[in-house]
Design brief:
Strand content of chain A: under 5%
Order of helices and strands of chain B: HHEEHHHHHHHHHH
Shape of chain A: flat
Helix content of chain A: over 70%
CATH architecture of chain B: Orthogonal Bundle
Strand content of chain B: under 5%
Order of helices and strands of chain A: HHHHHHHHHHHH
Strand order of the largest sheet of chain B: 1-2
Number of strands of chain A: 0
Largest interface: A-B, 87 and 93 residues
Number of domains of chain B: 1
CATH architecture of the largest domain in chain A: Orthogonal Bundle
Oligomer: heterodimer
Chain lengths: 282, 317
C-alpha cells in the first residue's frame, strides 16, 4: 500500500469513527426528546384538576387518579422508612465492621445480586411469603416489595460514602473519648449526610416508577382507600391497566399518570445529582 | 485525683462498649437480613415452582408448549424469547453506547459535556412503564409503517427474508421489543463505559496521540484494550437488566406463547409471561409453572451477574 492511500484510509477510518460517535449521541438524544415530547404532549392533554381530586373512574365517566396517587405515596413512604433503616445499618456494617472478612464479601455479593435481581421476582417472593399465607393482596405487601428494591441501593451508597470519610475523622472522635457508636452516629453519619440522602433519593426514584413488583402484592383498587391492609391502588399499576384498555378516557388518564410519575422521578434524580455535586465540592 | 480519673476512664469505656456491641449487632443484623432475603427469594421460588418441575420434569425446560387450558406448561418459548430479546437489545445498544461514551470522553466540546451527560442519564431515569407506553403507542406504529411494511413488501415469496420477517404488521413484535430494551439499557452501559474510559491513564493516550495516532486509533488500539475486561463486565450488567425487564417488554412484545418464528413475530419473555398471567392463574399448576419460570429467570440473571462480577472485579493489567 502506498503511503498516500494509507494516509487516505486512515483519514477515512477516523472520519467514519468520529461520525459514528456523533451519530450515536444524536440518536440517544433524539430518543430522549421523542419520549419526553410524547409524554408531555399526551400527558398535559389528560391533566386537569380532576386528576388530583377524583378517584379512578369507570370507563366513560369522569374521574382522576387520586386513589392511585395516595396509594403510591403511602406505599413508597412506608417502604422508604423501612429501607432507610435497614439499608443505612447494613451499609454501616459493611463499611465499619466487615473489614476484609469473608462474611463481608458474601454480604457485598448478595447486595449486588439483590440490586440486579429482576423486580418482578421480588414481587413473586413477597406474594409467596405474605400475600399467599395471609390470603389477600395488601398495600403492606406492596410496601415490603418496594422496600426490598430500595434497600440494596441504600446499602451500597451508604457503604460507599462512609468509606470516603477520612480515617482521621474517626480517630479524632475516638481520641475525644467517644465510643464507636457515637462516632458513627454523630460524626460519620453527619459528615456523610448529603451522600446518604442522595442514595435514599436514588432509591426513591427507583421504586416510585416500579410496576412489576406491585402487580401481585398490592394489586390495585378502584376506590379510594387509606387502609394498607387492603388491596391498594398505585400510579404504575393503574397506568398499566388503563394504558392497555380500549377506552380513550382511560388512556388519557394513563398518559397523565405517566407524566406525573416521570416528573416525580426526574425531579428526584436531578435533586440527587445536584446534592452529590455539592458534596463533592465541599 | 489521678485515682478518680483512672477509675472514671475504664467505667466509661465499659459503658460505651456495651452500646458498641449492641450497635454492631444491630448493623450486623441488618446486613444479615440481606442474605436472608436472597436465600428467601431462592427458596420460595424453588418451593413454589416445585410442583411444575415434578409434573413436567426436564420437559418443563425443553418443551415450548404453554397451554393453560390443557394444563401443559413448557418454558422453552419464554426462555428463548428472553434470551433473544436481551441479546438483540445488547447488539443494538452496545455500539451506540460505545459511541456515546467515546463522544463524551474524546469529542464533546467542554461546555456541552455536562448537559449531554445529564440528558443521557435522564434516559436512564425514565420509568420502564413509560418506555412501554411510548413503545406501544408511538414507536411500534411508526416502525410498522416505515420499516416493517416496506421490508415485508420487498421480501420475495419463499425467500429467506420472507421467512424471518413474517408476522402481523402492527409493530408489536420481538424486534421492536428489543429496540425499546436497547434504548433502556443504553444509558447504563454508556455511563459505565464512560467511567472506564476516564480511568485510562492520560500518559497512555497522550503517547498514542504523540505517535501521530488518530482519535480512532487511540481509542481502538489503546483505550479499549486497556478497559476491555471491565468493559465486558459492564456490558454483562446491562444484559442482566435487559433479561429481567418486565413492563416495557410486556407492552410491546405481543405476548404470544411458543417459540418465536421470525423477528417480526409476537413472542413472550419469562418476565412478560409472569406479569400477564400470574394474577389470572387459577389452577395450582399454572401458578407453580409461573413461579418455576421465575426461578429460571433468577438463575439466568444470577449466572450473568456472577460472570460480570468476576470480570469487572479483575483489575486491568
Amino acid at each position: 500500500m502506498s503511503s498516500a492511500s494509507l494516509r487516505l484510509s486512515r483519514r477515512l477510518g477516523a472520519w467514519a469513527f468520529l461520525g459514528f460517535a456523533w451519530l450515536a449521541t444524536a440518536l440517544a438524544l433524539l430518543a430522549l426528546a421523542a419520549i419526553l415530547w410524547t409524554l408531555v404532549s399526551q400527558g398535559l392533554a389528560g391533566l386537569d384538576l380532576a386528576v388530583f381530586t377524583m378517584s379512578t373512574p369507570a370507563p366513560g365517566s369522569r374521574g382522576g387518579l387520586l386513589n392511585a396517587i395516595l396509594g403510591s405515596i403511602m406505599m413508597c413512604t412506608l417502604a422508604m422508612l423501612a429501607a432507610v433503616f435497614v439499608g443505612v445499618l447494613s451499609g454501616t456494617w459493611l463499611s465499619e465492621f466487615a473489614g476484609a472478612s469473608r462474611y463481608g464479601k458474601v454480604v457485598r455479593f448478595v447486595n449486588d445480586v439483590l440490586l440486579a435481581a429482576p423486580s418482578i421476582l421480588i414481587g413473586l417472593f413477597v406474594y409467596e411469603i405474605i400475600v399467599h399465607p395471609m390470603k389477600g393482596f395488601s398495600g403492606y405487601a406492596g410496601a415490603v416489595a418496594l422496600a426490598m428494591l430500595a434497600v440494596p441501593v441504600i446499602t451500597r451508597t451508604t457503604e460507599d460514602v462512609l468509606r470516603l470519610q477520612p480515617v482521621a475523622l474517626r480517630e479524632a472522635s475516638v481520641a475525644l473519648g467517644a465510643p464507636l457508636w457515637r462516632t458513627v452516629l454523630a460524626v460519620l453519619w453527619k459528615a456523610a449526610r448529603s451522600g446518604m440522602i442522595t442514595g435514599a433519593l436514588l432509591a426513591f426514584a427507583r421504586i416510585s416508577g416500579e410496576t412489576a413488583p406491585l402487580l401481585f402484592t398490592a394489586l390495585n383498587n378502584q376506590f379510594l382507600s387509606l387502609d394498607l391492609s387492603k388491596p391498594t391502588a398505585s400510579l404504575p399499576a393503574v397506568i398499566f391497566q388503563f394504558a392497555l384498555s380500549a377506552y380513550d378516557d382511560w388512556r388519557r388518564l394513563a398518559w397523565a399518570g405517566a407524566l406525573l410519575i416521570a416528573l416525580a422521578v426526574l425531579t428526584v434524580t436531578i435533586l440527587a445529582r445536584l446534592l452529590s455535586r455539592e458534596t463533592r465540592r465541599s | 485525683m489521678s485515682g478518680e480519673a483512672a477509675a472514671a476512664v475504664p467505667a466509661r469505656a465499659a459503658k460505651g462498649a456495651v452500646f458498641d456491641r449492641a450497635f454492631e449487632a444491630l448493623c450486623f443484623g441488618a446486613a444479615t437480613l440481606l442474605l436472608v432475603a436472597l436465600v428467601g427469594v431462592m427458596a420460595s421460588l424453588t418451593v413454589g415452582g416445585w410442583p411444575a418441575f415434578k409434573a413436567f420434569g426436564l420437559g418443563f425446560l425443553t418443551s415450548a408448549e404453554w397451554d393453560p387450558v390443557a394444563e401443559v406448561y413448557g418454558a422453552l418459548g419464554a426462555i428463548v424469547g428472553t434470551v433473544v430479546t436481551a441479546g438483540l437489545a445488547l447488539l443494538f445498544a452496545l455500539p451506540l453506547a460505545l459511541g456515546v461514551a467515546i463522544f463524551l470522553v474524546e469529542l464533546c466540546p467542554a461546555p456541552l459535556r455536562r448537559p449531554i451527560g445529564m440528558a443521557v442519564e435522564l434516559l436512564a431515569g425514565i420509568p420502564s412503564i413509560v418506555y412501554g407506553m411510548w413503545g406501544l403507542f408511538v414507536f411500534a406504529p411508526w416502525f410498522a409503517r416505515h420499516v416493517q411494511m416496506p421490508i415485508m413488501m420487498a421480501a420475495e415469496p419463499g425467500s429467506l427474508l420472507e421467512t424471518i420477517t413474517a408476522g402481523v404488521p402492527n409493530g408489536a413484535n420481538i424486534l421492536t421489543a428489543s429496540m425499546i430494551l436497547a434504548i433502556m439499557i443504553l444509558p447504563f452501559i454508556a455511563a459505565t463505559l464512560r467511567e472506564l474510559l476516564l480511568t485510562v491513564p492520560v500518559h497512555l493516550r497522550e503517547s498514542a496521540y504523540g505517535l501521530g495516532s488518530t482519535t480512532y486509533e487511540t481509542v481502538a488500539k489503546v483505550s479499549l484494550p486497556y478497559i476491555r475486561v471491565s468493559a465486558i463486565g459492564a456490558v454483562m450488567l446491562g444484559l442482566g437488566r435487559a433479561l429481567g425487564e418486565t413492563m416495557a417488554v410486556t407492552f410491546i412484545i405481543g405476548n404470544a406463547h411458543g417459540l418465536p418464528t421470525s423477528i417480526f413475530a409476537s413472542g413472550s419473555t419469562i418476565a412478560s409471561t409472569i406479569a400477564n398471567e400470574f394474577t389470572e392463574a387459577t389452577h395450582e399448576l399454572h401458578t407453580a409453572s409461573l413461579i418455576a419460570l421465575g426461578l429460571v429467570l433468577f438463575l439466568i440473571t444470577f449466572t450473568v451477574l456472577g460472570l460480570a462480577r468476576a470480570l469487572i472485579g479483575r483489575k486491568p493489567t
